[in-house]
Amino acid sequence: MQAKTKIAVVVRDDLATWQRLNVTAFMVSGIAARFPETVGEDYEDGSGQAYLPMFGQPVLVYVADADALRAAHRKAVDRELDVAVYTEELFATGNDTDNRAAVQAVPTEKLALVGIGVHGGRNAVDKALKGLSLHP
Question: With a threshold of 0.90, does the pTM exceed it?
Answer without folding.
Answer: yes
